[in-house]
Amino acid sequence: MKLFHALALSSVLGASLVIAQTPAPAKSTPAPAAKAAPASAPSAADIASAKAKGLVWVNLNTKVYHYSTDSTYGTTKNGKFMTEADAKAAGARAAKASGGKSKAAAPSK
Question: Is there a domain that residue 72 lies in?
């Protein structure tokens, strides 16, 4: 009986040593998502078409949108045209009015 216990104990200890020496499986971490490359700058025809449709230009980096009367309309490096409602739904806000360039003019009294 002692021989059986000794044999069983050595089997358990031997197995635990083998398990302890087995390297842990490598963690498979997902690769970081690559940032989308900025789209090419819109052409003059693209800008004219967007103005005719009443679209705003959204800077995707800053989440600020610009009206067609703004000097930065269609000029930021990473942006796209969309409706004002879509811009707001995407979390963008209107650019601060600078020198009367915003779409909505304050009513004069």
Answer: yes
Q: Please indicate, yes or no, if residue 83 is contained in any of the structural domains.
A: yes
**pLDDT over 60 at 9, yes or no:** no
Q: Which two tokens stand for residue 42?
A: 């819109």
- The count of structural domains within the chain is 1
Which contacts qualify for 17-23: CB closer than 8 Å, 24 or more apart? Answer: none
Q: Does residue 37 belong to any structural domain of this protein?
A: no
64 - beta bridge partners? Answer: 59, 93
Summarised one tens digit per residue, pLDDT across range 68-79 is 999 999 998 899
C-alpha 23/C-alpha 10 separation (Å) is: 22
Q: Distance between CA atoms of 46 and 19, rounded to whole angstroms?
A: 65
Instruction: For residue 70, give its domain range.
Output: 44-94
Q: What one-letter code names the amino acid at 89? A: A
| Residue 56, strand partner residues | 82
Query: Tokens for 25?
Result: 């499986």
Q: Quick check: 43 pLDDT over 80?
A: yes
